Amino acid sequence: MQELSEATRDSLEQNLLDELSIEAPWALIERFTTLVRESGSEDEREAARYIAAQLEQLGIPHTVYEPELFLSVPVKSSLVVNGQTIRAKSPAFSATTPPAGVTGDVVSIPSLYSPRSIDLFDVTPATNANVAGKIVIIDGYGGPPPVRLFEQLGAIGQIYINPGEDIHWGICTTIWGAPDLDNYARQPRTPVVSISRPDGEKLLRQLEQGGLRASLHTEMNEGWMKCPVIEAVIEGTVEPERFTLVHGHYDSWDVGIGDNAVGDATLLELARVFHKHRDQLARTLKIAWWPGHSTGRYAGSTWYADAFGLDLARDCVAQVDIDSPGCRWATEYYDISWMVETEDFCKQAIKDVTGKEAHGERPHQAGDYSFNNIGISSFFMLLSTMPKDMLEEKNYYPVGGCGANIAWHTENDTLEIADKDNLMRDLRVYVATIQRVLNNAIHPFDFRRLTAEFDETVSRYADAAGGDVDFAPVKTALSDLKSALDALYARAPELVNKSVGDPAVRAYNDAILEMGRLLIQINFTREGMFRTEPAIKIPPLPDLAPATSLREATGHMRHVTRTHVVRGVNRVAWAFENAARAARRAVEQIQQQP
Length: 594
Description:
This protein is an alpha/beta fold. The chain is built from 16 helices and 15 strands.
C-alpha cells in the first residue's frame, strides 16, 4: 500500500462516513427482536449464526470460537411473605435455594435508601448493621459490592428494591470472567432477589408495623457452557501486526434491543464499511462479538483476553467498547467512559462529526473492560445518552445502558428503544475514531494528561498519609517521567505527516504502547498483568489508595496499612521510572533517524 497523506486520510474518513447505511444494521436489529439471547441458549447460537452469515456474505475473514464459559443464568425466583408470593428476579450468580427456599427474619438498612441516586456500578454501602442470620432488605440493584458485604456480615438472603415499577436483571458476583484459584471462593453463596419499588415500599411498611419473615426461592442454571465468540479481522497493509480491538456483547436479557442489539448492528456495519476500504487501512481492525456479558460477568471478553493475551500485550493499540449506541432520545454525549490519555482525541472526533461537545469520566470497573490488566488504552462503553432535562422531565432514575431509557435490563427493551437517526450519528463517531487510530501516523494518546492526573492523586494520598509513608520516590519518579514525556511529545509535530512505516514513527508508537502497559496497569489494577480485578470500584493508583485511611487506622491495622502503602510506593515509582526510560529511548531512536 502507498502511504496515505493527511489529505488522503481525510478523504478516506469522508468516504467511510458516506458509505454508512442503516439497511444492514436495522435488519440485524429486527432479527434480534425474535431472539432471547441468553448465553448458552439456542437463541444465542442463532444470533451468532446470523452474524457469521452476514460476515460470510460480505467476504470478511472471521472465526467463530467455542470456548467454555462459566455462566449463571437465572431460571426462576420468588419472594414469599405471609403466604403471599411477590414477583422477583434474581441477579446472575445468586445462589440457588433448596426446594423449600431460605426463610428468615427481615432487617432493613434504611440509611441506604436513595432511589433516585444509585451508582449501580460502584456503590459500596458502609454499615455495621447486625444482619447475621437474617434476610436484608435494601435499596438498589443488587450489585457485587453490597451483595458481598452483607454476605460477609452473615446475612442468609438479600432483597433489593429497584428504583421503579420494573425489576431489572443484573449480576451480583465480584468475580470477573471465569474464576481461577485466586478468586473462585468469592462466588456468592446466598440467594438474592430484586423486587419492584411498589412491592418494596409495601414490605417496608409491614416491617415498620412489626416483625417480618420472608422466604426466598431462587433457581440458577449454573456451570461451564460452550458459547460462540465471533472475531472478524480486517488486515492492515502497512503495520498489519498492530491492531485496534472494537467489540461488544451480543447476549441479552430478553430480546435486549437497546442493550445490546444496537451495538451488534453497529459492529456489523463497521465491519462492512472498513472491509470495503481495507486496501487503505494502515493497521488491522479486529471486531468481536461476546457472549457471557450479563450472565458470566464479561466471560466472553475475558476469555479472549486470556486466549490472546500475548497478542494483545504486544500489538493492541486501543480497545473500543460498543454498548447501547443509537437509542431512543439519546442525543447528547456526556458521562462517556474514556481513559484520560484518550480524552482530547475522543472529544475532537465527536465534535468533528456531530458538532457536539462531549464530556467523559474515568471508566468504571464494568462493561467489557476486560483488558485493563494488559494495559491497553481504552475509550467508550456507553456513548450517546438522553439530555439531563429530559431525564428530569420523565423522572427517570439512573440505569446502565439503553441511552438512559429505563427499559434497560427489562422485558421492555424492545424495538422502540432503537432509533435510526441516533444510530447513524453514533456510527459516524465510531468510524471517525477508529479510522484515526488505524491510519494516523502516531498514536493519538497524550500521557501528559495522565501524569497531570497522577500529580493530583499522589499529592492527595501523600497528604493523607502525613509523615507515616515517604512518598518521595513516587514524586521524584513522576517528575522525571513528566520531563521525559515533554521531550517525547515535542517530537510529535515532525512525525504526524510521516508514513506509518517510518522508523521514527515506529519508535514513537512503540513508546506509547510500552508506557500504556505500565501506567494503565498501576492506575486500574492491583492484581498485575494477565490477571483480573474484582468487579468493584478501583480508585486511581489503587496501590496507594489505602493511604487515605492510614491516619484513622490503629494498632495492628495501622502497621498493615502502612506496609501496604510502602509496597505501593515501590510499585508505582518503578512503573514511572520504566515509563520514563521508554520515552527517553524513543527520543534517542528518533534522533538517530535521518
